[in-house]
Amino acid sequence: MSSSPAVLAVIPARGGSKGVAAKNLAPVAGVPLVARAARECLAARNITDVVVSTDDPAIAEAARSAGAEVVERPPALAGDLASSEAAVLHAMDQWEERHRTPLHTVLLVQCTSPFLVREDVERVAAAVIDDGADSALTVAPFHGFVWRAGEAPEPGDHQARPGGHQARPGGHQARPGGHQAWPGGHQARPGGEPAVSGGVPAAPGVPAVSGGHAGSAYGVNHDRAVRPRRQDRPEDLLETGAAYAMDAMGFREAGHRFFGRTAVVRTDPARVLEIDDPHDLDRARALAPLLDADRQGPGALPTREDIDAVVLDFDGTQTDDRVYVDSEGRETVAVHRGDGLGIAALRRAGLDVLILSTETNPVVAARAAKLRLPVLHGIDRKDLALKQWCEERGIAPERVLYAGNDANDLGCFALAGWPVAVADAHDAVRAAARAVTTRRGGAGAVREIAGWLVGAGLGGDTDRARGAHPQRNPRPNPAPTPAAS
């Protein structure tokens, strides 16, 4: 048995969710939230074990697939009023009973923080393991002016700290108006609610006014009569809600996550996001191609070591999804010559490559013949065809990269280990993808994918792909050329 202290990361993930249905299984960059959190914890060097506490069989399956252990949460700890602390204490008891090993340190990790990284998990754990703190939490620098609707508390009221700072009962994060305040600015929610002058959303039936008692507000962390420059203000720290570490024995005695000497671990403010409603989930999916870039983990781009086969949709992936019809009814499509170079590079690297399409037009077979690729077209159930093809060739589906653009590709996305959407794919396809190209279909997306996998000999595409920043103004699609050319 290792002499290293037992350090357990507990990820509470119950099945019920009010704001977002099946929230903990919602995919971001093609990976369920619970799996993203589990992978980052498993990759942290000072975490010895990772447990997901859940009452939901589907969440348990996703957690095990990601490599985490599962503790079945009893119904009494799975309701809306159950605390995260209660779930962690139960998971600690179950883990110690299974492994017959006392815990040194325990972490509470929230999978609703999709951009938590292993380095932050390591540092919050190290604050307790190595630096002697009793408890620790991840924070982000915050320079915003916090307001609250209503009358200011009287001097000496315990609701306010000296200097107007908000007291947080029990140490739990309080968000102004119940919404997350973003470091460096106010959070704008698409379709956001009307707000009173203090920035708090107006309740249904309450007018959003700025004058009189109904709309009065006061500064929580500042004197509203004084507007100092940012550099003259003390730095506040926003609790990110992503990760907490506690001395195991002290946590059992205290019963809550903050006790004794509490250390703060500063994190990147750009990565602070908690998913509480559908807007947050949409924002996470939009940000994932940027924030997941160049990371070995959830959302990272695949390499040759990850992939044995590449399967390509045709229309909308190798073309711009348009069809040109002449006066005789003949159809042509536009393809990108760079994609042909990328496919040739994939074949030279020893990868199996297949074109899989529902399209019955002979142009698909003609293009496949030009590229010297096998093709399955006129296929209604592409997922079944892909499964059979993998079985016949002895290829594990989890080592298949499948590139597509529309709803008929989602079945293959669920089967392949690396579902990839082209930049202009349908929103549902982008949301289910594990990676998204910066190039549009028919504009070099396949060459970009080849650059991820083989790199050398494909010019600068590898560098651009590794940057993983979606083009704000993708270059125009190429002029139509005969598909077989």
From TrEMBL:
It is an enzyme of class 2 (transferase). Residues 150-231, 460-485 are annotated as: Disordered. Gene3D superfamilies: HAD superfamily/HAD-like, Spore Coat Polysaccharide Biosynthesis Protein SpsA, Chain A. Its EC number is 2.7.7.43. It holds the Pfam family CTP_transf_3. Coiled coil: none annotated. The keyword Kinase does not apply. Its cofactor is Mg(2+). Residues 473-485 have a biased composition (Pro residues). Homotetramer. This is N-acylneuraminate cytidylyltransferase. It comes from Streptomyces tubbatahanensis.
